[in-house]
Amino acid sequence: MTVSKSAAAIAAAPSAVAGVRGPRRSVLFFAFAFAVIADPVSSVAYAIEAALRALHGDLALLLPTMSLVVGLVVVVTANYWQLVRRFPKGGGAAAAAGRAFGARWTFLPIGALVVDFVLTIGISIAAAASAVIALFPGLAPLRIPMALLLLVVVAGLTWFGHGGRLLFAFMTVAFVIISVAVLILGFTSPHATGHAAASADPGRSAMLAVVLAFPVAMALATGIEAPSTAIAQLGQLDDTHRRRFGRGTLALLVVIVGGLTLALTALAVQLHIGIPGTDSTQIADIAHAAAGPGWLYSAFQLTSSLLLLAAASSSFQAGPGLLKALSGTPERPGVLPPVLGRVNRHHTPYWSVVVYLAAAALIIVAAAGQEQELVLFYAVAVFVSFLVGLVAMARFAHREQKTALAWVNALAAVAVAFTLAVNLLRGWPMLSLAATLLIAAGLYARWTRAGRPTGIEDVEARAEAE
Q: Contact 316/155 with Cβ under 8 angstroms?
């Protein structure tokens, strides 16, 4: 659910205005779109395995499960397509909730964002460490220290602000290109096949198994909201072009994430790649079976780990940026203590970075550096934000007497609520919901104590624009 700043420097340039045509605008869109979708693309590295584990290794049900996941991703993306149209200056679910139900409801998606940023950092760092271990199994005993080291390095890089974030776009493209090469080789001339059985439990209800498993893999949906808020970075584009950038990025997100997910899932089924061993990941096993132990496999592991680190770095930018926006300025009263808004000469709110660093380190240690332990918590907070956004858009459609659109949004909200409920029934994910509600309540209390300063609905857009 993270928002990258890679396009900010380009958007600030005089050439990046609405009147520019041709190659310059294409470069701007490339920088914006591929950097923003780094987070959802990186989710492919662990979402498929999460579904297979929830299915208890039943490969026969993996493709139907991931197809359902991708279908729900399309439904949620359609809602953010509407959000971009209504809020071309950014704002996402927070802006929608504030406009539809009043400022106090803004804090629910904001609380969800704060939790989601922490989990994105933790899971991405842990998954990057797993990718390295799959390539170099001898490092397995150092999983937690290595993950913490990567965490500190990524957090440290935020000290220098947003310089070099254009690399995120190239990391995303590199991963996609290498993945396509692996897929082509895997489907046409695989190096080897696995030994996983087609069905781990042929006697159980397939429909029930899929229904219970797919919510876990909805970690794939994280980052969908990023384009709707990241368009606030494009301050020198007019509303029409910001809408085009936002919607173009959403379309690209669905095509790339959905395509990679279904193709890798189909390849896992065809090559009989089941639940991986302790020191590997399913996506690594897929690449190894497809390409063998050569350079292509190494390139796949390297690009996937770098992309995961890019996703973590993006949250280290967006999360502290949100806390900074909430801390206010001398001219505008804030909700959080001013110390969280203090910046260095690179405009990095360093104390807010420390907050996220500490929180992410805590969950990495608690999960023993295993990203699959954290995935169970991942699709809870972000789905609270999705649900609020969908209900808000349904209300807008109802007010404007757009009956068909109101029904579509309402049905999508029911699907998202069902996904959230199934995840919560697992027990431990209740902690994510509790953290979301606690943060939202705390922010609301501080907002009330501060005299309810206006403009809180736009805090997410303001965090991006700044």
A: yes
Inter-residue contact 186 to 297 (CB < 8 Å): no
Q: Quote the CA–CA distance of 316 and 4 in Å, as a whole number.
A: 10
CA angle 378, 380, 381 (to 5 degrees): 90
Contact 413, 395 (CB under 8 A): no
Distance, CA of 98 to CA of 91 (rounded, Å):
10
- Residues whose CB is less than 8 angstroms from the CB of residue 315 and which lie 6 or more positions away in sequence, other chains included: 2, 39, 117, 118, 120, 121, 124, 356
Angle CA 241–243–246, to nearest 5: 110
Give me the pLDDT at residue 270, please.
93
Give CA–CA dist 157/177, Å, rounded: 26
Q: Write the Ramachandran bin of 102: left for phi over 0, alpha for psi from -120 to 50, otherwise beta.
A: left
Closest by Cα among 317, 358, 302, 309 to 153: 309
Tokens 């890019």 -> residue: 310
Torsion of Cα atoms, 224 then 230 then 236 then 239, to 10°: 40
pLDDT value of residue 36 = 82
Question: Do residues 265 and 63 make contact, with C-beta atoms less than 8 angstroms apart?
Answer: yes
Helix axes 239-270, 23-36, angle to 10 degrees: 50
Beta-carbon neighbour count of residue 278 at 10 Å?
A: 9
Kindly give, in sequence order, each residue whose CB lies less than 8 Å from that of residue 376, ignoring residues fewer than 6 positions away.
50, 216, 423, 426, 428, 429
pLDDT < 50 positions in the chain: 1-20
Backbone angles phi, psi at 244, to 5 degrees: -65, -40
The model's pTM: 0.88
User: 147 CB contacts (<8 Å, ≥6 apart)?
Assistant: 125, 126, 128, 129, 364, 369
**Which residue, among 310, 314, 315, 342, has the nearest Cα to 328 in the 3D structure?**
342
The pLDDT of residue 16: 39
CB of 323 closer than 8 Å to CB of 336: yes
Rounded to an integer, what distance in angstroms lies between the CA atom of residue 356 and that of residue 155? Answer: 9
pLDDT value for 466:
61
pLDDT score at 201? 60
Q: What pLDDT is stored for residue 331 in this prediction?
A: 63
pLDDT digits (tens, 9 = 90+) for 94-117: 888 888 888 889 999 999 989 989
Please count the CA atoms within 13 angstroms of the CA of 25 that sit on its side-chain side: 14
User: What letter represents residue 76's amino acid?
Assistant: V
> 403: Cβ–Cβ under 8 A, 6 or more apart, which residues?
397
